[in-house]
Specification:
Blueprint (H helix, E strand, L loop, with lengths): L2 H16 L5 H17 L9 H5 L1 H4 L5 H20 L26 H16 L5 H16 L3 H5 L12 E5 L5 E5 L2 H11 L11 E2 L2 E2 L2 H14 L9 H14 L4 H8 L4 H4 L7 H11 L19
Helix pairs in contact: 1-2, 2-5, 6-7, 7-9, 7-11
């Protein structure tokens, strides 16, 4: 890769981190995609024209459409940066492939399945041989399903994040953006019980050697809970519980904008994916609330049978 490409990619990533507040994992993904594209263009990415960029489609033919869409997004931002900074007179992004990308529907749990998880947790807590891990499990799941936290946010919570009767916490999520997250009474109670076992000098709410439990360990804990509850471990993860939080809250009448704020989504379009699960509620809403809902037909159309 040419030193020019490397230098410009570094400048672009610095701008994205400093001015846009892009999360570190996203920066690393951009870096990987841009370095790879530079290699595919013979170290001439910064000077590539639309025709050269169009040839990348062939190089990416074996990739999933979601991967191609991510690479295209990184390149579009990169060339917009070059153009905005006056480093190019044109923007060749029009030559980039346009992958058809359908946003996948999130995996979700129905309320009966969630009940099974909590029944398992309650049985472990009621067991005379209850270990400290049962109280940790209870706190973890209450916060995942009760507040919709991301796995990374949950495992890195400070020991003092949830204080007394305060019904919310302030989280710093993706892009170092702060948001207010309500904490249910159940979750606060579960955390209070778990704190009895957390060392006073611990920095994190869910400590482990050298810091806090890892995301991988959290995944293992949740999948073990699924197996104990008679659910398919492959269909349950911390993120699935976050999806369940959003889905069930929306079904209960939550405002989409409020849900966006609680989940920490930068774009409302990301939150709107949850509206697919509530089709039955929408039909019921139309049937009960529409101005014509309570009117009955007094006669059937000519030549047709009366409606039942």
């Amino acid at each position: 890769m040419s030193t020019t490409d490397l230098s410009l990619i570094d400048r672009f990533l610095e701008m994205m981190a400093a001015e846009r507040g892009v999360a570190r994992n996203t920066i690393l993904a951009y870096q990987s995609d841009l370095v790879s594209a530079s290699q595919l263009t013979g170290g001439k990415l910064a000077d590539a024209d639309a025709k050269m960029l169009a040839q990348l489609a062939g190089q990416w033919s074996d990739l999933a459409s979601s991967s191609v869409a991510r690479k295209v997004s990184a390149l579009r931002r990169f060339f917009s940066f070059l153009h905005d900074e006056g480093l190019r007179d044109d923007n060749p992004s029009s030559g980039l492939p346009k992958p058809a990308r359908a946003r996948g529907l999130p995996k979700i749990l129905d309320k009966d399945q969630v009940d099974l998880l909590f029944q398992t947790i309650e049985a472990e807590l009621a067991d005379a041989r209850t270990s400290t891990t049962a109280f940790r499990l209870s706190a973890l799941v209450e916060l995942l399903y009760g507040s919709g936290l991301r796995a990374s946010e949950l495992v890195s919570l400070p020991r003092t994040a949830i204080v007394g009767d305060r019904p919310f916490i302030i989280l710093t999520g993706k892009g170092d953006k702060e948001r207010l997250v309500p904490i249910s009474d159940r979750a606060r109670h579960a955390v209070h019980e778990w704190l009895e076992f957390v060392p006073k000098e611990a920095r994190y709410l869910f400590p482990s050697r050298g810091g806090h439990i890892s995301r991988i360990r959290l995944y293992q804990i949740i999948k073990s809970l699924a197996a104990k509850s008679g659910l398919d471990p492959e269909k349950l993860s911390p993120h699935v519980l976050r999806h369940a939080f959003a889905t069930h809250l929306l079904a209960g009448g939550a405002n989409l904008r409020a849900l966006q704020a609680m989940l920490g989504h930068a774009d409302i379009a990301t939150t709107q994916i949850y509206t697919h699960v509530d089709a039955s509620r929408l039909v019921e809403l139309v049937n009960k609330r529409h101005p014509m809902a309570n009117r009955t037909l007094t006669r059937a159309p000519t030549g047709s049978n009366p409606l039942p």
